[in-house]
Amino acid sequence: MPMLYLRNVTYLVNGRKIIDGINMRFKEGLSYSILGPNGAGKTTIALILMGVIKPSEGKVLLGERDITGLGVTERAKLGISLLWQEPARYDGVTVREYLSLGGKLEAGKDELEEVLEIVGLPYELYAHRFVDKSLSGGERKRIELASLLLLKPRYAILDEPDSGLDITSGELLEKVMEYLKREKSTVILITHHEDIARKTDFSYFVCSGKLVRKGFSEEVIAYYRMACGKCPLLEVMRNGH
Asked: Which H or E run includes 172?
């Protein structure tokens, strides 16, 4: 099966290694989490996968193709999409217009209704509302999720997807992942929550820019509970603060 790879990726800022020799691979149709405390380098990995920033060393590969030099637009055309941690705001654009312009101009009412229902926003109540300050951050995050679903990407990267959402976010993410799985998308969740990581097939545990452990999600969670139990960063991951 085709795979998205990070091969020996290092990222430097002012000579300091934010990411240090990371190797990861993501098979199509499976779900992954990149797990670690705040400041571990998780979002940097997401930005490198999306082409927002380029690694200082190493390569990003899609199958046999080296895509390290490709930017966001080129990677989007290859089916790689990123859900940003902070949702955008677009004054003067309705929810329907935003979703229709999100790379899916042919989306009909039925499809828009389906994805809005998945993210918990009834079509009749939200389709004609504006994506501006009248919507809460959580509502805008749900609209971003709906836009991602419409794209049906080969690789869906979700950076802290529960950020800004309410207590129903666990159920919401399950519905989102079920939809993406049905569309045969590979899901890559960036998270510091154990419960979010448990929703995926495989996990990469990252700390201080280094890959510490990889494997089945439950095995990775059990590892850092055992090996990192005395580390104060573990409490951050458990409590979600």
From this structure: helix 169-182
